[in-house]
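Lecture 7, part B: from sequences to assemblies.

Below are the input chains for today's worked example.
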Amino acid sequence: MNALVKVYLVCIVLMTGALAQAEPRKVSPAETAAIETSEIWAKIKAQLFGQRKIEPNADSLIEFDVPVRAEDAAIVPVSLRTRMVATPERFVSKLYLIIDKNPSPISAVFSFTPESGRADIETRVRIEEYTPIRAIAELNTGELYMAAHFIKASGGCSAPAGKDAEAALANLGKMRLRVDREVRFNEPNLAQLMVSHPNTSGLSMDQVSRLYAPAYYVRSVAVSYGGKPVLSADVDFSISENPHFRFYFLPQAPGELKAEVLDTRDKSFVTRLAVGERSASAATDAR
Amino acid sequence: MRADAGRVLPIKRVLIAILIVAWTAGCAGIPARSPAIPEPLQVADGVYMFQGAKGEVDSENLGRTGNTGFIVGESGVVAIDTGTSRQHGDDLLAAIARVTDKPVRLALITHTRQEFLFGAGAFRAQGIPVSMHRRAANLMAARCENCLKTLRRQLGETIMRGTAMFKPDIEFETSHTIDLIGRPLEVLYFGHSSGPGDIAVLDRRSGVLFAGGLVDHQRIPDVQDSDRPAWLAALGALARLPLTAIVPGHGPAGPASLVDSVRRYLADLERHIAGLLQAGVPLSAVADASALPAFSHWDRYDNIHLRNASIVYLQLERESMFK
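Predicted structure of the full complex, as structure tokens:
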């Protein structure tokens, strides 16, 4: 394929992903090139997927939403929605979130099941510097699709005053599951999980003490409903302090939504939420 | 170029020409073309301000986006805030010297934001002590090396030449009266409000308040480092003072009622974001849903307001989760 056509196609793919946004995302040729020719990505691709073919984001299978320019690089919302009718024969089984220039680029791997109802996830990540950011959807059939953006964010003056990290440590492991609306059976319902955790990378220096806060972060999340897995996630310190996940589950009858979190010191935290016939519409505290 | 000009024209004549241009521009009230020669606005007898540029930091405005000022007493001058860069500080001192030949005895820094801090080196180089609240100094030490790096990248070495991190000569903890220039000045500290260590400075004689980070005018206040309930309480305390005018941290000077516009913004912001959180709007949609049309004409609405929205969202979310 002619190089120009290639660039053009990538642009189209990127623009399609951005249609949902109020302002059209402008992708400069340099950003397109950064996405296309990233050496880090070439390595990760080989490591995760070997020789397998990754299709561009055909038919907007992934709706991948990141801010064009993040005002706070420590908490950048990332939303991945899959726009495919899931059947037991063909569904999105995994979503990979890759942030090329982060110290640990493979930022999250989310696994879904038919009990998820929808392979959608929203979380918040740290962005170290201007970087390509990618979402790869893996189907149970083995097909792979990728959507990518270029994101402008970097620390600078946005470094926090530090009190939040202390508060996060004081509340370590407190968790909350939330289902905002009345639960409807046999359709996907939105849930939120928030974990109080500093999720430190071990890479940021306190400018006063000249010390590095040790790496200490959540490494896995497992959510089940009625004993069946709904969502599991392998994550690391690319996820922002106080990790937060919005996801779906597909309840067929009253049951228990349960979340289990494991961190790098092998501490395990569990929270449960009873989902009943008449679940309250208000947030239910499951601490 | 400059060397050539020096060769063609005798240096003395060039200097005189520059002085005449600067002098006439000042007298006629014509804003000087280059922001490098700021002309102060007189707010009251002996009370002056330099108004910062609107918008984001860029090489056109030299990053000089914050207000600074000075108060002239019988026996000297107190400067309030020091500007963005060493050169900015030098320019401020030169501009003060054009107004009065009394010595500058002290530079007070009202809060920890780059456009108020980094001119301090110019004052210190002339032996003028720089004073700030201990908590403001601590925040500067914790953060501002990065700010300075970013600023250097944005503005370039020419604009930022000679600008460095510093430790204030005087650190204080509480409200106090400054009796240095034959004109009492009140340093007002309300605890961690718009930021840790943010202060306001009241000139008792004129009733003019330099409000620093506590009050902005026609510009979105930045909630990033704030304790909002304490900030609102501090604004309440300011509203009870007999003020004749306020010099805000950003934007033009105005009447005492500027305090109310900041209170209104903070209240509207909190109410609006609480509504979004209640409605289950995710963080990714907050920017698009953050519109507060009553404030859309304020400077930095397009960026500081968006950041404020996300900061308040995260704070309220945390409060609701871990009360």
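Note for the exam: Residues 52 and 253 of chain B are 11 Å apart (CA to CA). Keep this in mind when comparing with the next example.
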